[in-house]
Amino acid sequence: MMKTRTKLTLLFTIVTAVLVSLYGIAVYYFSKEAREISFYSELKAEATAKANLFFEGALTEKEMHRLYKSNIQTLTEVQVAIYDSDYHLIYHDDYKVDYVKEDSAMLASIFKRKQVSFFINNLQATGTVYTYQGKKYAVTAAGYDQYGYHSTLNLLSISIFIFVIILVLVYFAGLFLSKKALNPVVEMVKGVKNITAGKLQLRLEYQTEKDEFYELAKNFNLMLERLENSFSSQKNFVSNISHELNTPLATMTAELELALQKTHGTEEYRNIILNTLNDVKNLSKLSASLMNLAKASYDPSEINFEDIRIDEIVLDSYAKILKENPQYSIQINLDHSIEEQKLIYAGNHYLLLVAFTNLIDNACKYSPDYSCIVSIRIINGFLSVEFINHGSFISEKDYQNIFKPFYRTEEIPHKKGHGIGLYLTKKIIGLHHARLSVVSKDGITSFQILWP
Question: 202: which DSSP letter?
């Protein structure tokens, strides 16, 4: 499997190769075009110069032939031919080796266009109209640009050589830079390897420079912090659950062992059965609370929400509580001026039923006369559901811990409970984007839910 460092280096090298290639191709192409244009200019100048020599008589035709043959031995001489307007050849440097091989169509094109340029295999040729004493002549010049081709070939060879050198240098520079750039990731990997379930307190070190690696390490440490808190909560949860389960199980075991030790009367057996039944009911309530807590801990996207009426759930909770605790006294005050639409919210019926049942049960349980008032009204545009009881008081210590899991007040130790209800209720209300608050003063305690 290819490492990221190698991938980045190869990608960087490929991109550089493409860019340098495009640059080299552009340079070679424009150099080639410039050479062609330059040599065409030389051909035109040579054609004009020899036409001048021929017509002005500075050199005889034989001397011009001799000059051409002597020059062709040392360099690639331009071959010039002159035709009159009737397409008759009047001068040629070397008609035996005719480069251009002019025909009537070519000469007609030269006379018509005044100036033409073209290739004959590797030779470049040009034709131009020369005027002397009122007569027009077609002068052609052809030659091989040996120096220009040699220079272009050298440019191509040097470009290829430099291209290879650049790629090698870029590759090793890429290795060095990618190693330096990815060094924070290597350090993070080393740090991650040291983090285990038993060492969640460890954190990744990161530089103060706020780049992408800084954000990665910072968010990874935040995730570790959440995991550490989750593991810690889980340990406490398991410890508390073990304690909560152990108490009724130990009581049941003691009751049953006592029943087996000797023969008892009917009333004694009845008391033992009742005590054991109460412990079983206690275990059943604890089990139900734990199941509800698990459901409330689901990902919100996995919980089914639908349009529900808050007042109807309050009435369902009222009926459920009275069925289980007929000694409770519950009064529901609904502001009938509330529009029906303001009572409808997106929520989960089962979870809200659990939350409202917990709040009503809690209010009645800690009231001297087991009574509770549930008030539904609109406050400053918010739907308010209050659960009120008289006679109880929440201490400052309880205020700070009342919504923590498995916390139970020490002020009223004889009240049965597991310390899950309010914690579960707070979690459910939070899932529904509502706010749960508590106020306790002047002998009145109120738990209020405000719905947006």
Answer: -
